[in-house]
Amino acid sequence: MTAQSQPPGTAQRGEWVLLSYRMPREPSTPRIAVWRKLKRLGVAQLSDGLVALPADARTREQLEWIADEAIEAGGAASIWLARPTAFAQERELAAGMAEARAAEYRAVIDQADQAADGTNTAAAVRKLRAELRRIGRRDFFPPPERALAHAAVRALAEQTESPQEEKA
Amino acid sequence: MKWATRAGIHIDRAACAWLIRRHVDKEAEFVFVTDPAQVPEGATPFDMRGVELGHHGGDCSFETILRRYELTDPVLWKLAEIVHEADLDDERYDAPEAPGLDVALRGLSMICDDERILELTGPLFDGLYEYHRRATLIGRDPA
To answer: Where does the ChrB N-terminal domain start and stop, copy by copy (chain A) (predicted)?
Structure first.
């Protein structure tokens, strides 16, 4: 059972994979590379140098490789499987992650709205679809904005296919 | 020779196993383990944490094996781009095949064991190799 299949607030507490890591401040390139990868994965930042994802085979592997990367760069890292002791704690974590994704989806909706008035909607559709895929991969607790953002990009795609109807 | 990797294989391990069998060790035998401590004596581990044939410097294990065994065939490096993106999805390369391959492999892992995935993906990677070999020869997408 992965936390991924449970909406926040359900009775079953999920399992989380935690990465605890520390890296030298300099050189900053490997530290920034790790930070970018963690952002891309959509981790919840529990505290300085401690991040979490709902545990499944994939998220665990992703964090394990990043742990090795931190170690190869002269840092220290360890991977843990954990369960929050209180439901409220997990809800808060999930809600924070959902809100982070919601903000990303809202940005997509804004860009779709702006693109609808522009001339090159086809390029905007390609870009926003790629962005939706990227967000989707790190969306463990889908917020309502997810469906809205997908609908906004779909509408833009339909407008691209039939521009005459749009003007009517 | 014996080769060991983590059980529950996905794109990188399936591709590495194909690469090893085709270009490194024709007699390769694969063992799937759930813990690094279970790697049998004398087996070469790959795509596992802390081993030589793992992820290094932003490369996936497939790329690491290409480097380690000095395989310079440009078609293999083309496949490496696809495997890298399917596995790491960090947009280092433009590999439009990657998301589809990733989903196909994830689906297979839901209905097959690791041995069976290797059986099924062998011809798949052979075909991908042939496609990109022809593409390299004629300098455009083959029919």
So the answer is: 31-113
